[in-house]
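ok so for the tutorial part 2 we go from a plain amino acid sequence to predicted structure tokens. step 1 is just haveing the sequence, like this:
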Amino acid sequence: MYPLRVVGTWTHVSWRRHASIVGTFGRKNGMHFLDFEKPIAELEGKIAELKHLSDGDGINIAEEVGRLQNRVDKDLRSAYAKLSAWQKTQVARHPDRPHAVDYINALIEDFVPLAGDRLYGEDEAVVGGLGRFKGREVMVIGTEKGRDTETRVKHNFGMARPEGYRKARRLMLLADRFALPIITLVDTAGAYPGVGAEERGQAEAIARCIQTSLDLRVPVIVVVIGEGGSGGAMALAVGNVILMLEHAVYSVISPEGCASILWRDGEQAKTAAEAMKITAQDMERLSVIDGIVPEPLGGAHRSPEAVFTALRDAIDTHLNQLVRIDGGQLRARRRDKFLQMGRFGSE
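step 2 — the prediction. this is what the tokens look like for a chain of 347 residues:
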């Protein structure tokens, strides 16, 4: 699908890092830092400068570097222990955060991409195909944002058009026919809102995707790896087990969109994020998801290999349980799971 190269200890797509996104104030030493990470950025800048001096002059500064690194770790723990909903939204959108293709490369062996909806065309915002997860044949479907300007345009910033959701539906039906478990990776701000998408039946395509998900007789595991925005996320998020990464968000609309509707002011996004209850912790308390996959200190982008390992273990645990269940029961449990979310008791 993409040319691969190995950096350090993990394999990833060979993309250039793009410049910035909402909430990013700058970049140091090849890494983007968010607004609330400014003190950490300054410390890591000092560490980089010391290491550069040491390399050039043969000076041993290990003790000072160690002291500064301890401060960085302490500040990271302090900052990430009390993230607000808006700050978690910023982390979920972090430009260095692993994307769907990164997880596919790390978790899926012998991946064979499948393209096209057999009706209109190919949508690069939705990636999917066949592969093996820990030796078991699976179907993988995900929304891909892209990483630099070129790939973000190619993948339409992760905002799928109708043909993307129709492709996803086609792959779901193919998996159902051959009794293959399905893993979906959700990371999108929402479905593409353009005129062309509406003319080609955006709402119908999403609804059909959800309908098909509810009708499948194979295990479906959903993972919200970044943003889970609106119906664009829901189209791929109807599963037997729904997981979220620790700093992912899941909402019916973006905080900015909510703020512009309720307050007529996009600057109220922070207030909207808190009111909407969009974090993984909120979703778990509301019983919308089944579990939270922990991220390394400072977010998934700081140690991709660690989050790949954690997610691999979580998927493996749930998949081993689901494959033992009869197809009819899988479908019935999945339907009941989502019906229960809309029920309110008399208490």
